[in-house]
Amino acid sequence: DTGVSQNPRHKITKRGQNVTFRCDPISEHNRLYWYRQTLGQGPEFLTYFQNEAQLEKSRLLSDRFSAERPKGSFSTLEIQRTEQGDSAMYLCASSPPPRGAAPNYFGPGTRLTVT
Amino acid sequence: DQQVKQNSPSLSVQEGRISILNCDYTNSMFDYFLWYKKYPAEGPTFLISISSIKDKNEDGRFTVFLNKSAKHLSLHIVPSQPGDSAVYFCAASEAGGGADGLTFGKGTHLIIQP
């Protein structure tokens, strides 16, 4: 079990550029989540996939944000036309198939800085 | 409106003593509660969870207590060790957990003093 991995770990970009992050969940986990964390706050839920289906999106996920999980394995999160307010840690988490409640297991995160 | 509240931004405890971290919630639909530990520059690490059908869950040095009527949960760490110094997040979800995203508090920074 290699855990959840995220790439890149750090990204610095200029305002207006597009960025894409990748998440590889734990292999047997079919549920995948994206969160965003800013300084002094807890992680905030952005979106959730079960297999390849995107089942839930937070109102935090503006139309500049898009997430995909094309084959139900890895996922990408793209932010178009980045703004300084997008600077945050973007966290991916995965969870095993529903057999009652189960925790989210988090990756190390991608820290985005928009200059 | 914050649905999960951790009112103590920081807590300092002597090594070997008990650490008690508190969390309050407002959403009565929450039925699954978790505690995470986070070191700087790392993702949160799952510690322990509790379902709303229980009032206590124990795992080694960590015990979580749930008081549904007060909408309050707490994490007890005993004995506290230097490696426990980290930020601790309380989280909650509805519908049996997992299907919906977790709602987190702002965290409590626990400092274990030698």
Question: Could you give a short description of this structure?
Answer:
Chain A is mainly beta. In chain A, 0% of the residues lie in helices and 49% in strands.
Structural write-up:
The complex is a heterodimer of chains A (115) and B (114). Chain A has 115 residues and is mainly β. Chain A has no helices and 11 strands. In chain A, the strands form 2 sheets. In chain A, strands 2, 4, 5, 6, 9, 10 and 11 form a 7-stranded mixed sheet that branches. Chain A has a 4-stranded antiparallel sheet with strand order 1-3-8-7, with no helix packed on it. In chain A, a hairpin with a 6-residue loop joins strand 7 and strand 8 (75-79). Chain A is globular and about 45 Å long. With 114 residues, chain B is mainly β. Chain B has no helices and 11 strands. Chain B has strands at residues 4-5, 10-14, 19-25, 30-38, 45-51, 56-59, 62-67, 72-77, 86-94, 103-104, 108-113. In chain B, strands 2, 4, 5, 9, 10 and 11 form a 6-stranded mixed sheet that branches. In chain B, strands 1-3-8-7-6 form a 5-stranded antiparallel sheet, with no helix packed on it. In chain B, a hairpin with a 2-residue loop joins strand 6 (56-59) and strand 7. Chain B is globular. Chains A and B meet through strand 4, strand 5, strand 9 and strand 10 of A and strand 4, strand 5, strand 9 and strand 10 of B.
The helix tally of chain B amounts to: 0
Radius of gyration of chain A, taken over Cα atoms and rounded to an integer in Å = 13 Å
By DSSP, the count of extended strands of chain B is: 11
Helix content of chain A: under 10%
**Average residue pLDDT of chain A:** 92
List segments of chain A where confidence is low: pLDDT < 50 over at least 5 consecutive residues: none
Measured between the Cα atoms of the first and last residue of chain A, the distance is 36 Å
SSE order of chain A? EEEEEEEEEEE
Gross morphology of chain A = globular
Secondary structure class of chain A reads: mainly beta
Task: Please state roughly what percent of the residues of chain B sit in beta strands, choosing from under 5%, 5-15%, 15-25%, 25-35%, 35-45% or over 45%.
Answer: over 45%
Which parts of chain B are unreliable, with pLDDT below 50 for 5 consecutive residues or more? none
Report how far the terminal alpha carbons of chain B are from each other. 38 Å
Query: What gross morphology of chain B would you assign?
Result: globular
